[in-house]
Amino acid sequence: MKNIILRWSIFLVFLIISYFVIDSKVHAIAQANLQSAMVVNLPQYTKQELIDDVNARMKYLLMRTKGVKFSIHKVKRRENLWGIAKHHGYSVHTVIGCNPQMKTYNVSINQNLLMPSTGGTLHPISSNDTWQSIAEKYDIEESVLKQTNYGIKDLSKEYYIFIPGKKPAVDLLNESMQEKYALRDLFRSPLAGRLSSTFGTRRHPITGKISKHGGIDIAVKTGTLVGAAAAGIVTVASTDVGHYGTAVFIDHQNGYVTHYGHLSKILVRVGQRVKAGQIIAKSGSTGRSTGPHLHFTIKKKGVSLDPLKFLW
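Structure (tokenized):
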């Protein structure tokens, strides 16, 4: 009887030992498989592919950033860059900074644009870049950069990182966009208000006819102070300027002329030299107007240009 009990005891000990040995091997294999599954091979792209292909750029960034989501916006009829940016809750700088393929402010129907979930810009990595140098360039904490771009281990092997809350570095934009950014230094906004009508083809609010709108309309209360968009000489200051009603024109002596229409009061005279930002009038609803606002036009050598390309 004792021998039988001893044999069964030995057999049970053997079973227990075998169970733990097998279990530890199974566990080790499972762990190895799990670790293998966690190794993600990031898609590989060339820098030119990331510039030309919006989908590739989105996939590239989604695997490397944290706290920022990216999506693609397909441009619809009558949309412009400023309206698209406003719809997403940030300035046009973000759209330009995240779309290095752009060479103009104009967009076309069905054009794809990369849109981040928060304002910011892409920074193209150069051979001399370090986390510290990039942080200094954009005046941002190095820790924030690393946290946002958490999927990047070796900066020298990457093409782009996302800089949250910052505008694009003008010197890193393509040549065409650098030239356009230089226009920002020419003019300032004549007042703050709601953009009620943009530049270009529209249905006229009074006649109902399709026509070209040669400037922008900024909706404000009557009597809002209007400032000169840049220094220059007043060439028109009249209460009878056609559909403008009461208006002021300023010649900026560099080929550019600005118009300020539908005013309620003029505060300058013809021939007067004004400084940028100097108060020249008060807004109103004179002339052909449906309500109080400022009509603002920028012309160069007689050709009307989109003011938003200078102001945004």
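The longest strand covers residues 293-300. Residues 2-38 form the longest helix (37 residues).
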